[in-house]
Design a protein that fits this description.
Largest sheet: 4 strands, antiparallel
Structural class: alpha+beta
Number of helices: 3
Helix content: 10-25%
CATH architecture: 2-Layer Sandwich
Shape: globular
Strand order of the largest sheet: 1-7-4-5
Distance between the termini: 18 Å
CATH topology: Gyrase A, domain 2
Order of helices and strands: HEEEHEEEHE
CATH class: Alpha Beta
Number of strands: 7
Length: about 120
């Protein structure tokens, strides 16, 4: 079900896999459903905790490469990184309905484990 909730990521993304896979858990401080300019218009703004600062280094070292975003181990999307994170917020968007955005925000606010990795999808 979660895999249908999200199909894109707000920061633009491009590239290929790294040779050595790594996974990073992101601690969510708050998630809120929002709007995206791309139909069907749903998005989720995610504020990460200070503990998730290593996500910036993770994305910086993978510019141009594909990563995977998972909630509770379920693959949500596999975007390509166009640039490093430069703050504590990310926006999950692209092909998500407003209803799906509300559902995902609820899950992220209620203990869903959000991870990013560069492991091959099996």
């Amino acid at each position: 079900m979660l895999a249908k909730l999200v199909s894109g990521l707000a920061f633009s993304l491009m590239g290929q896999m790294t040779a050595s896979a790594e996974m990073l858990e992101l601690k969510v401080a708050r998630a809120e459903a929002s709007r995206d300019n791309v139909p069907p218009g749903g998005a989720v703004d995610v504020l990460l905790t200070d503990e998730s600062v290593e996500a910036a280094a993770f994305t910086e070292s993978r510019v141009g490469r594909q990563i995977h975003i998972r909630a509770d181990g379920i693959l949500l999307m596999s975007p390509f990184i166009g640039g490093p994170m430069n703050g504590p917020t990310i926006q999950l968007s692209g092909g998500m309905t407003p209803e799906a955005a509300k559902n995902l925000a609820f899950l992220l606010n209620h203990s869903a484990k959000l991870t990013i990795d560069d492991e091959p999808v099996k």
